[in-house]
Amino acid sequence: MNKNNPIGIFDSGVGGTSIWKEINSLLPNENTIYLADSLNAPYGYKSVDEIISLSIKNTELLLQLGCKAVVVACNTATTNAISVLRKKYNVPFIGIEPAIKPAALNTQTFSIGVLATKGTLSSNLFSASTNEITKNIRLTEIVGEGLVPLIENGKLETAETILLLKKFIQPMIDAQIDHLVLGCSHYPYLIPQIKKYYQKE
Ligand code: DGL
Q1: Which residues are tagged catalytic?
Q2: How many CB atoms lie within 10 A of CB 29?
Q3: Model pTM score
Q4: Ligand 1 centroid to 115 CA: how many Å?
Q5: Ligand 1 mean position to 196 CA, how many Å?
Q6: What domains can be seen in the chain, in order of their start residue?
């Protein structure tokens, strides 16, 4: 395969563009193709089999377009499907998982929170990579139900979005977390709102 071939990136929608931006700034000489499967978003409530079959479909399309590597810019697809993709195709797959490890290593309150999709939080890969590292830490896991469609529709600062954030983040504040892990590639688009309403100065 030619080294000038593009790197393929996929997500259920616009969320993975938060990853794409970083790839572009770290590897400015690489060509990239971004695939947003908005038709099938959100992935967070689909069964493992559905997530696998959508991930295969996305991969096939990117490989047809000549991609030399595939970035699964979606926590839900990574935690449920990347092992299948790695077995099935002979290209490198790079995935993303909730950043529990840095939060667990740096917490002072021994309490951290993770906001992610149902699919991610219920996956075997999430439990496997989380259980060991959070043994002495209180982990508050919350499903960000309803956030992805709002972000897909650009509703970042609406009353509905702020209300949902309040509902999800208040229990974490009550649990005295000092690190909030955003375990879905859509959620970084809500960082300004989260900071505005919840960051302690
Ligand atoms: N952006 C994805 C993730 O990181 C999926 C969100 C969804 O489609 O539910 O999990």
Answers
A1: 74, 184
A2: 5
A3: 0.95
A4: 11
A5: 23
A6: 7-95 (3.40.50.1860), 100-200 (3.40.50.1860)
